[in-house]
Structure formats: structure tokens, C-alpha cells
Amino acid sequence: MGKKLLTAGIYFSLLMIALLFSNDNVIAQDSKKEKKQAAIKALIDSQNYVFKAQSAMPMSGATRQLNYEYDVKVSKDTINSYLPYYGRAYTAPMDPTQGGIHFISKDFEYTVTPGKKQGWDIVIKPKDVQDVQMMSLSVSSEGYATLQVTSSSKQPISFNGIIVERKTKKKK
Question: Could you give the C-alpha distances from 53 to 65, 145, 158, in angstroms and in order?
Fold first, then answer.
């Protein structure tokens, strides 16, 4: 009887130690998640970030994984878009090398509203770009994002990606 009680006590002690360490791990994970959420919120609030596109989803056709540095750089005074385009265009560009969604806008509306599950919905309406009517960006609190681009001369296209900090060049 004594050996069984001793063995049960050891198992109980080991179980308590395991629970204690796993609880610390959960607390550390929660803390890390909260820090990431705070960092994403700070980027959105500062209006100084980059949407890095990882996949493109045209209206018709398959999703395409992107392996190049396609992005949209957002700052308070400029939107710089360098994205590919897959889908039906209603008018061809004058310059065939300008086939994607490439533009720099200095005159635009920028609206942020709370989104689902502690995320944000951002609407960007460039006023000085003919082709792009609106960009709708849905950002999760973890930094995952979906961008939908509505154009006057092309079918809409969506992109999945992430929000990251915008690196600024240091002046010497």
C-alpha cells in the first residue's frame, strides 16, 4: 500500500509541475500575442506601414502565390502601390510595361473603422489616380490582411498578405 501511495504522490507532483510550466507558457504566449496586437494597432494608428502581398486572387482563375516583393506602402501623405494584376482589363495601358497596379498617390481619402475580432477595415480612395477607384484593406489584430482593389478599367482583384512596419531611410 505504501508503494502505491508513494507512486501516486510522485505522479501527482509531476502533474502539478507540468501544469505549472504549461501555465507559464500560456501566459508567455498571451503576452507575446498582446504585444504583436499592440504593435499592429500602433502601425495602423500611425498610418505608416506596408502591406506585403503574398497571394493574388483574381475574379476568375486560380489563386496565384506571389514570390516577388509586391506591396502597398502607406504613409500619411503618400500611397505607393506596386502590385501585379491578373484578370480582365477593359482597356489596355498605353505603355505595356505598366500592366499592374502601379501608382503613387499624394491626394487620397483614408478611413479606418473597427473591424471584426479586434481588427480594422481601411478604405483608401485615391483622387489623383485615374484607374484605381478604391482599395479596401481588412487587417486582423495579428497583422494578416486582405486587400481588394476596385478599378474603373479592370475587374476587381484581391490580395492576401501581412502588415509590417515601414522602414524609413535615414537622412545623413
Answer: 9, 9, 10
Q: 159: alpha, beta or left, given left = phi > 0 and alpha = psi -120 to 50?
A: beta
Pairing of strands 132-139, 71-74: unpaired
Judge residue 164's burial from the number of C-beta atoms within 10 Å of its C-beta, 0-12 exposed, 13-18 middle, 19 or more buried. Answer: middle
Q: At 6, which amino acid appears? A: L
Could you read off the pLDDT of 15-69 as tens digits, one per residue? 666 666 665 555 555 677 788 888 898 999 899 999 999 999 998 888 999 988 9
Q: Does pTM surpass 0.85?
A: no
* Domains delineated in the chain: 41-165 (2.40.128.410)
Distance separating alpha carbons of residues 98 and 39, to the nearest angstrom? 35
Render the burial of 39-58: b for 16+ CB within 10 Å, e for the rest. ebbebbeeeebbbbbeebbb
3-state helix, strand, coil in the chain (%, to 5): 30, 40, 30
